[in-house]
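Notebook, p. 212. Picked up where the previous page left off. The plan for this session was modest: take the two constructs that came back from the sequencing core last week, fold each one, and keep the raw output in the notebook itself so nobody has to go hunting through shared drives later. Recording the first one now, exactly as returned: residue sequence, then the structure token string.
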Amino acid sequence: GPKVGPYTVHVQDFEGIALPCLRNVDSRPVLLIDEIGKMEAKSNKFTAAIRKVFNEFNGTIIATIPKPSANPLSLVEEVKGMPNTEIITVSTQNRNSVPQQIIDMIKDKD
């Protein structure tokens, strides 16, 4: 499989786990995606599924993305630019308060 740094991405194995999780999510109020990054972007099927979910899901999506870099991933940039997207940068200073911040954001949508 393709390499990301010292790691080999086993695309078919990844797709066998990730893609079923991204199907039939319409009845859920919240969808968690960990993560949309370099390794995951090696799968064209995952990329297509992420686009579909972000364009069609009616609930709240909480997803992790890599911190900004000199070579941003096009899928990450696309997701960041979607309407109703809010980026929360987690740091050592705020990491303990971020869970409550996310809970409050979800409650505010109700």
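Okay, moving on. Second construct, recorded in the same format:
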Amino acid sequence: QFWRFLLRRNLPASSLCKMHFALLGLGDSSYSQFNYVAKRLSKRLLQLGASAMLPLALGDDQHDLGPDAVIDPWLNQLWELLLRQFPLPAGCEVLSDRHCPAPRFTATVLDSLSYADIGQPVARQQPPSMAAPPANSTSTPA
């Protein structure tokens, strides 16, 4: 519905004049319509009066460094721009890329005894390729 709405021909050219956007397309340049949706969306937003905060970025899986060659610089530019327009409150600072927050959850591998200990007995099953054939089956050499 959003796409259909944007493509309506009767929308005034100033419909989105108060909108600012940054658009990152992800695609694969081996396809004939590489990043078609991102290109078309950007063009339409501009036609309707929106302002691009950054140039359209087109990530490409075929790039030697993958889509990250475009994504990483684009994200850095976006964060710089957003922090200039919307500074952090006093006493707050941007976390470094190396910051690793403490985990909120822990994972513990439980064996069959541990399952029984917590009241949820579960029979451990082997994958089908490892399981023995059913007792009533016969097999013949290939």
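Notes on construct two before I forget. The chain has a mean pLDDT of 83.
Flagging for discussion at group meeting.
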